[in-house]
Predict the structure.
Amino acid sequence: MNFNQFHSIINSANNEYISSLLTFPDELLLLLFESLDISTILSLSDVCNRFLSIGQVSLAKKFKDSNLGLLLVFDQEHRRRCNVEFAFEQFELETGRFIFIPKKSNVIRFIHSRMILSPKLRKVLFTGIDNGANSDYKNFIQKSCTLSIESNNSILQTISTVYRIGRGSTHLKSQFNFTYSLSDIPPLSTDKNRCGERWITPVRFECSPCFFYPHESIARKIITNIIHFKRRNNQRK
């Protein structure tokens, strides 16, 4: 079931139907959520705290049971481009964050020099989904993130923020973390080592569920319809 189908169901439903939906046990709601697409799950997660909890679990299960993952796109001065695929690892209930790890070991070569700008994380995309079908899935980050490559032989973390619409805010802040190791020692497969070379190994990517909220106000449509039906029912009484 996609967003348009679910939207039409809500439009054709009455207030009693919506109220009864909230009385369903969590197990039944979880089955319902798992039949929806990602956009609709995120929209429903914005309705109330109970739907948020169920939405997090169902979204984690959808990541785990399907080919959905993330593609991180790096470059340095719009050159030396490298794409790294990440697979869903787990949902940390304590922190409420999704954890993604690289599908395979990747070592990325960049240059540390005063004459060259630092490398950047340019894009975070879905894999296993048609990114062209929905503009919300083209790039989840709104500006590129600079990666520090000054320190040698260390574990570093880049923390940045995106803004979404949801949870009663038109400027919802969502933080994400990218962790990587940095070394000036080339991998064994490299024959030559040039001055200033740095080798980045991606380790993990962390984000909250609202990181995947659509950029536009799709999530508000369901809430607006529920409020509309409740008001109309109160007027009839």
